[in-house]
Design brief:
The protein is an alpha/beta fold. It is built from 11 helices and 6 strands. The protein is globular and about 50 Å long. Bound molecules: adenosine-5'-triphosphate and magnesium ion (MG).
Length: 248
């Protein structure tokens, strides 16, 4: 999940999708690459601030297997973040293999999972580059709001750059439209404009703007557990089905 723009629904989509894929019988690992650690807490994982996290695997070579946390959804595990990751953007600069540290961490555990989702931070720094270098495909959540396409040019350039060196096989799986409000004319315009810019690359599932998606993380629950009959839950279930079909 990658978009340098903040607050577009990367984390909400990563946690919701992980939960629904796991509910469909897949083994899913959610990697929290953001020092804000929203994916970790949103998946219901509570850690002390100095608890070892992905940071220690990437920077201090901790065994990632010992860092994995189970969520209350069977098959859905989290590789947690902590605030320490905020230092990683700077510390990585001086390190060998600074762009491929996450890839190395994930290589030792990837065979345990059907899907690994990486929740990127809202920047195009070294952490995000590590995410793109480790990924096979990118999902770009885009908010159905004014300025939705802002910053996407820079993201595309970064993806191109990663493709030209670190990860030639990196693909864009699709653009995910989030926070759609059907009462808002602008939202429909954004849907049209994004479809024009990414022909054939926009997921059919469109995530509605709903209060339950905003509330769920404060209970440490994904929408699957918090409000499974909501429109938002149905949309994320549809997205999970689309992705499972695309990746068969
Ligand atoms: P950041 O760039 O800070 O990591 P993000 O792209 O991960 O942000 P989220 O944290 O998923 O975005 O969402 C931003 C805020 O909007 C959160 O408070 C979240 O609960 C809320 N939110 C996300 N999706 C929806 C939605 N479809 N409807 C209503 N609120 C939403
Ligand atoms: Mg986030």
């Amino acid at each position: 999940m990658c978009n340098a723009k903040g607050g577009v629904g990367k984390t909400t989509s990563a946690t919701s999708l992980s939960a629904f894929m796991a509910a469909m019988g897949k083994y899913v690992l959610l990697v929290d690459l953001d020092p804000q650690a929203n994916a970790t807490t949103g998946a219901g994982i509570k850690l002390d601030p100095d608890h070892p996290s992905l940071y220690h695997a990437m920077i201090n070579d901790h065994n990632p297997e010992l860092l994995l946390k189970r969520t209350s959804v069977f098959g859905f595990d989290v590789l947690p973040a902590s605030q320490a990751l905020a230092g990683a953007n700077v510390e990585l600069v001086e390190m060998d293999y600074r762009e491929t540290r996450l890839k190395k961490v994930l290589n030792s555990i990837r065979t345990n999972y059907d899907y690994i989702l990486i929740d990127c931070p809202p920047s195009l720094g070294l952490l995000t580059v590590n995410g793109l270098a480790a990924a096979e495909e990118v999902i770009i959540p885009v908010q159905c709001e004014y300025y939705a396409l802002e910053g996407l040019g820079q993201l595309m350039k970064t993806i191109e750059l990663v493709r030209s060196g670190l990860n030639p096989d990196l693909q864009i799986m699709g653009v995910l439209l989030t926070m759609y409000d059907k009462r808002n004319h602008l939202a429909r315009q954004v849907v049209n404009e994004v479809s024009k810019n990414f022909p054939g690359r926009v997921f059919e599932a469109i995530i509605p703007r709903t209060i339950s998606l905003a509330e769920a993380p404060s209970y440490g629950k994904t929408i699957l557990q918090f409000d499974p009959d909501s429109k938002a839950a149905k949309a994320y279930k549809q997205l999970a089905e689309e992705i499972i079909k695309l990746t068969k």
